[in-house]
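3.2 Worked example (two chains)
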Amino acid sequence: MSLNGKSADLARQVMNQLDPSLSKQFGTLVEFLADNPAAAPQDSRTAALGSDEYLRRQAEKFIKSRAPRAPNPPATIPDEMVSFIINKYFDVPENELERAVELHNLSMGAENLIGDILERYIASIVERHDWVWCSGSIVKAVDFIHRKPDGTWAALQVKNRDNSENSSSSAIRKGTTIDKWFRTFSKKQGDNWSNFPKIVDARLSETDFRRFVEAYLSSLRNR
């Protein structure tokens, strides 16, 4: 079994049962996968590609990944050697080590969430213009898709930093027409919003992104 022209209709039917507000987006995403089958990851529980079960699982991931997500520090117990090195090499006093480790964990929790919030911010703007956020990692190495007026597809991969693309993601993108954009530089100050692809008639900026993040975090705290 495979994804085909009828899969998008089935996808919309499945999503209508779960969240009708996302039926159009999910149907478009499945149309993209039908036209680009190599971009469809196999289901980890081996449901037949294109089956009702497969589409339902993908729909559930599509929905779940759009639910608000709060920053969480790592749940693992810190290696005591970290504190030892901070104390012995960086001269952080012993009475400040516990706080230093706590702040480090909070920083990691925040850093792990930035990429997710970045996609949410972009989605809040581009989905008004018939782009689709590929939430749930349903498409390999692609975060946003759009069917152009001529019927061909535009695909965009978004990264938070210029050094955050792993080798497997880069290998998938190689030889394709997937556009890539990153928000910040790893070795210099500043942002890269001026080079964001001109995919919609709207200006995205770091200032607007900060406003979005502040509002998003405020809504999480008030839940």
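3.2.1 Second chain
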Amino acid sequence: MDGHHGVIHLLLTDVVMSGETGKEIAERVSKLRPGIRVLYMSGYPDHPVFDRGGVSRETGFLPKPFSPHVMAQKVREVLDGVKAA
């Protein structure tokens, strides 16, 4: 990412990974790219990171599994700043 000089509009990251959480990655990327939108995905909707890690299912969350259509729709919502119902 350091070598890319163009605009990056969206970070798509998993919530649960080995090493860092998606939230930690999003915080690091946001410092380098202020204003970037973040879309989290996870196959573990009951993972503790949702309660203690500051990741909200209500803002930019995509539960696994998902279809390409659902992913495209959610990406559009996040880029447009649409709040989850």
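3.3 Remarks
The mean pLDDT is 83.
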